Amino acid sequence: MTTITLRIAALSWRLRPRGVLVTVGGVLLLGLLMALNMRLGDIRLSVPEVIAATFDPSSAAHFVVMELRLPRALTGALVGAALALSGAIIQSIARNPLASPEILGVTNGASVLVVAGVVASGSAYGGASGLLSTLGIPALSLLGGLIGGALVYGLAWRRGLDGYRLVLVGIGVTAVFTNVKFWLLTVGDVNDTGRAMVWISGSLNGRGWEHVQPVALALAVLLPLTLLGTRSLDALRYGDDTVTALGVRTNLSRTLMILAAVLLAAVATASAGPIAFVALAAPQIALRLARSGQPPLLSSAAVGAVLTTGADLIARTAFPLELPVGIVTAVLGAPYLIHLIWRARK
Amino acid sequence: MRLQAASVKLGYGDRTIVDGLDLGVETGTVTTIIGPNGCGKSTLLRALGRLLKPQGGEVLLDGKRIDRTPTREVAKILGVLPQAPAAPEGLTVADLVARGRHPHQTWYRQWSSDDEAAVADALAMTDLTDLAERPLDELSGGQRQRAWLSMALAQGTDLLLLDEPTTFLDLAHQVEVLELVRHLHQRAGRTIVMVLHDLNLAARYADRLVAMRDGRVIASGAPHEVLTEDLVREVFDLDAKVIEDPVAGTPLVIPIGPHRRRPAPDHLVKGP
């Protein structure tokens, strides 16, 4: 593993050039995709038109760019970054490339509560619309995600936190949640469950600034904090005794990092629904591009943002009927990940 | 005495392994803990290295309770090499040794010139400079154990605890590792506590022996004081002869069993 050292007086940093390259490349690609996102759609805009629309409130396309396309694209990018960051942390701690926020009970906890809210508020059972209208889908999703995460964490804790036990407990809890979700979908009114299904697939349709804000806030706070935890996360790859001997508080580090991962995934899911595959694939793609030992946090976030924004662009413009973004992320991400794994094998 | 255990009670869950044990580690010596399987010697070492929290009593480092001292500060004074340590895949020797600098680093001081010098020193002292860029999985068992010792050395601690540093090694590599431990003690003046299974090697390479059985210290002191025929019987339930090691002059334990004994000389068998 090649690294370069940067020293200024008593300060020093170690950088991995490939990791920096992936992150910078990802951000540049993200900028390009965002620009395309502003231009393409039912109304095609030229670059000058987009610029005019951005800065001139009186321009004809101002509403389309500033109120429809930009918040939607930003939601996609931020949600993708948050999910990928969450996935990178969970994969590192579980020492398992198949781990994701889904394993931590976040995604399915959110789904259960949202579906329950939608079904209960519907017409079929006289309607408990009070619950849904006061809380709203994002709040229900956030609550469900946090409950799911807390449940898995609490059940997995046994005199400390072990990656394997976390994954196993997570799979169990996820199975229960999934079945409750399906049961609710079965007993619910067809119209209500239809609405719930759109949310479950993960969609960026109709996302506005109110969806951008929570994810932006969560990332602004948690991204720097998780980056500070990178060194501990890296040390946790060794056996627990070795890491403890090196002065790392293993259980505290794991708990804080998992808390960050749960919050990121829960907030992201509250904004856009459970977008499939980003949290799983983006860290693994970033790891292979950066050729590092475990998923690099910043690069993973960049890849996640690119994957989601690109997928939404396709979902929004490539087909006569708009698709939920979650379907495209899986269709787009899976072959690319398989390609990277296949290439590495040779 | 910088490191001591005061009436510690140790165990896992409901199972108590050590109850009310006192032990002081004499500064500047190599102390080796011996005893039968399950006597609690590794448990004691883990407690001394704050890898296991005592259920009662206390472990003191420089007069302060070790579990109340920030673990990072402890890591600058006390290094622990666990039994059969695990490293992530694909690591080079240099990566592993550099990890020893972890307690000295922060996010704004990730690789200081001190770190670089300490790692270079540690590699040189363990004779691994030429192998620094080799992946760990390509090394022999003895070389790998040397790399782990090198990591513990790069940590730059005055005290070093080694839990069975010779397990899974053949005799030649056992000697190689213990010679290195002795070398570190002499060259760098470290205080070393280790757990060993082989009594003869323990006697040869330690300044002090601590013999344990059933979670208690039966005897401690210089090898020739501790390692007697009576003690071997008391600690291991084994009849043995203890003679002088013809090479090192330290005690050498020869076990006595009912089988495989030298036939008595002819004139004693025939009789008159």
UniProtKB/TrEMBL annotation, chain A:
Its main location: membrane. The keyword Metal-binding does not apply. It comes from the Bacteria. The keyword Repeat does not apply. Keywords: Cell membrane, Membrane, Transmembrane, Transmembrane helix, Transport. The lineage of its organism: Bacteria, Bacillati, Actinomycetota, Actinomycetes, Streptosporangiales. PANTHER family: FERRIC ENTEROBACTIN TRANSPORT SYSTEM PERMEASE PROTEIN, FERRIC ENTEROBACTIN TRANSPORT SYSTEM PERMEASE PROTEIN FEPG. It is found in: Cell membrane. The chain crosses the membrane at residues 20-38, 73-94, 106-125, 131-154, 166-185, 211-228, 256-282, 323-342. One of its GO terms (molecular function) is transmembrane transporter activity. GO terms for biological process: siderophore-iron import into cell. This is Iron ABC transporter. InterPro entries: ABC_BtuC-like (IPR037294), ABC_transptr_permease_BtuC (IPR000522). Pfam families: FecCD.
From TrEMBL, chain B:
Keywords: ATP-binding, Cell membrane, Ion transport, Iron, Iron transport, Membrane, Nucleotide-binding, Transport. SMART domains: AAA. InterPro entries: AAA+_ATPase, ABC_transporter-like_ATP-bd, ABC_transporter-like_CS, P-loop_NTPase, Siderophore_ABC-ATPase. Gene3D superfamilies: P-loop containing nucleotide triphosphate hydrolases. GO terms for cellular component: plasma membrane. Residues 1-239 form the ABC transporter domain. One of its GO terms (biological process) is iron ion transport. Pfam families: ABC_tran (PF00005). This is Iron-enterobactin transporter ATP-binding protein. Its main location: membrane. It comes from Nonomuraea glycinis.
